[in-house]
Amino acid sequence: MDVEILARLQFAFTIAFHYIYPPLSIGLGVLLVVMEAMYLKTKNKLYENMTRFWVKVFALTFAIGVATGIVMEFEFGTNWSTYSRFVGDVFGSALAAEGIFAFFLESGFLAILVFGWNKVSPKVHFFSTIMVSLGSMMSAVWIVIANSWQQTPAGFHIVGEGINARAEITDFWEMVFNPSSMERLAHVLSGAWLAGAFLVLSVSAYYILKNKHIEFAKSSFKIAAGLALFASLFQLYTGHQSAVGISKTQPAKLAAFEAHFDSSAAGDLYLFGWVNEEQQEVKFGARIPGMLSYLVYGDSKKPITGLNSFKPEDRPPVNIVFQSYHVMVAIGFMLIALGIIAVFSWRSDKMFSKKWLMRIFIFAVLGPQIANQLGWISAEVGRQPWIVYGLLRTSEGLSKVVSAEQIMFSLILFMIIYSLLFVLFIYLLNEKIKHGPEHTELISSEYQNQKSILK
């Protein structure tokens, strides 16, 4: 394999692995705020116990997420130095803002969140929980803004020529609010909330199935169910808004989503299929005629810009984008259905006795993770062959001195280290789940007594 393929493989591997953890931290952070707020409002020890347990899981995902994210910044310098020089002014400001606004909040209040129980007042601890949750989301804000600038560059001018050319910011806020940043941010955050919510649903369903920590598990399940349904519906809305935006700013990507080649024809929406790029058609597919045009323009007969409007060398790999996009959408609808079912737990406890349903929720934790990964693939591969859309090709962003052997060596090294980290993460998470929350039986007994007194 050549240098470009290996460099792309290495970055794809490291970022895909890293992207397992930040969404979990962001989603769990929101749930921690809700759980602790319920404790402060009701003084029910069950919610304090719940918050304490999920803080431990949050701390684990946060730690692994930080450890795996550092590597990518080194990769920019070693494998993608031309790209780093080109975007350095833009990325430097975004990453600096992340350090000031996000990492400061997370690192400043994380110790109080994890170790501050019984050392600070409940209100101060709750304030710390809110700050850590905000910090985790602020971190996503600046990373998504930097990435969105690559998709839809704005607020800059080019300085220098050839290999020394670089983008220099002329308007910071125009760079921040570039045409795709807010739509993509909303979509990324809702995907993260889903990841956290379905982790809590999965562990709660496991306890219910094992008949352990029942009161704790049912309450956790109901809290996570609310976030899961809201986030899954919001994900559908933000996904639609993002696709409409892409039709204006990156029409080749939208055409690849639905394998639409003919610019004179209305766009169809495929439920599934296999793209034959040479024959420019979808094999074995099921389609809804004109639905893509209707969703984008509100007119099922209005033509959509097709891939034939672009030179072959300017088109993304269509089948990869098509498949990743469609599987992501299918998982999204599945998560909406599970969110609706989960919310029914608020009205009746009967669903908790259905073992087959609890098993589905246990494995559903994989749904948001797979959808997040596929969403990233469809967005990033759909941007190809541009590493900065319309300005710098991916092949032009490589370092000029790094060799294929050097990248292969570091790729193998990363695969070994990341595999060990993943095994460690699964082991520690499994230990925390097996150990479970503290003193649930006592708290459950107190809770039942409180309810009987109130009756």
Rounded to the nearest angstrom, the distance between the terminal CA atoms is 71 Å
Low-pLDDT stretches: none
Overall pLDDT = 89
Task: Indicate the proportion of strand residues.
Answer: 5-15%
Radius of gyration: 24 Å
Helix content: over 70%
Oligomer: single chain
Compute the number of helices: 15
Helix and strand composition category: mainly alpha
Instruction: Give the overall silhouette.
Output: globular
Quick one: biggest sheet?
A: 2 strands, antiparallel
Q: How do the strands line up in the largest sheet?
A: 1-2
Work out the number of β strands. 6
SSE string, helix = H, strand = E?
HHHHHEEHHHHEEHHHHEEHH
Account of the protein in words:
The protein has helices spanning about 5-20, 20-40, 45-80, 80-115, 120-150, 170-175, 180-210, 215-250, 250-255, 290-295, 320-345, 355-365, 365-380, 405-435, 440-455; strands at about 155-160, 165-170, 270-275, 280-290, 385-390, 390-395. With about 450 residues, it is mainly alpha-helical. The model has no long low-confidence stretch (mean pLDDT about 90). Helix 3 (about 45-80) runs parallel beside helix 8 and helix 7 (about 180-210) packs antiparallel against helix 8 (about 215-250). The N and C termini lie far apart (about 70 Å). Strand 1 and strand 2 (about 165-170) form a beta hairpin. The chain is globular. A two-stranded antiparallel ribbon has the order 1-2. Strands 3-4 form a two-stranded antiparallel ribbon. Strands 5-6 form a two-stranded antiparallel sheet.
